[in-house]
Amino acid sequence: MIRIERFGFAGPAGQPGDGATLIAPDGTTARFIDRGATLTELWVADGNGEFDDVVLGFDDPVDYFAPHPHIGCIVGRCANRIRDSRFSVDGRTFELAPTHPPHHLHGGPEGFHTRRWELECDPARGEVRFVLDSRDGDQGYPGNLHATATYALAADGSLELTIEAECDRPTPINLTAHHYFNLAGEADPCDVGDHLVRIDADRYLPMGPDFLPTGAIAPVDATPFDLRTTQPLAASFASADPQLALAGKGFDHHFVINGAGMRFCAELIEPRWGRRLTMHTDQPGVQFYTGNSLDIVGKRKRPRRTHHGLCLETQGFPNAVNEPSFPSVLVWPGTRYRHTTRWRFDVVPQSS
Prior knowledge:
352 residues; mainly beta; nine-stranded antiparallel sheet; 2 helices; 40% strand
């Protein structure tokens, strides 16, 4: 049975904060706070049975209130970039709050990652649920939106996130979890170059110098984006491919996941410690970001710099509201947005 421990904390101005910890029988532990519905810790076993925290973050919940590169939080109302911070629907153009002018990123400067979500705990189901209401005009988006993000920890140590939302006006909804993984754990503060990655995608979205998709959907064949077989990340970081150079000597690209429905998305292996992460999702794609501009002082007051963590953000296509050839992320009144991603942790034989 999953155990839930609830806790409180004081925000930067002394305001009360709420948090909860999910603990599985095998020792896998996930810790959350209501600020941004943020996953702050995720403890999983290595090949020797030793547990460590495999997501980047901060020691003090107060640090999640300061500006940071979306560490561990739920981002929205629309993840990723929207060109020129505008889109049109039903013949009306909406101007969004720019994050990196002139473009809009991850829901805007006061997006869902900055909000206090209402926390609900369900011990019988081993779940924590975060609830948020976003009013019409929030960051420029139309409609009153109601969203929930539910994390469930299973007895086998897998963690599942289900996000649901509905709105009373047509609006783009494209929520995602922005976790930075490093499977070496906090005890071994290395970069992710030794990690092995596999992404089940035949196609990806090339980007321009503004980090926005060009509109093309390109095959991965004969490029560093062919991650259909397991590849070490260090080799990609050393590549001279202009797309990787554009992103800052790493990935910041959207991969189009093969198939439909709930299916395999990606695998990540840290060979020295033997931890493996296997991801499944029902989303059309995943944004693979290798922390190319990461620069924080993280847990244990250690600096976390370029390539010290990576994100696998399951979501709809970036800038889909302005690209007619991309699958739509518009949600209409009377319909419900639903997004599920599952992370399964186990171990592989350690290299000698």
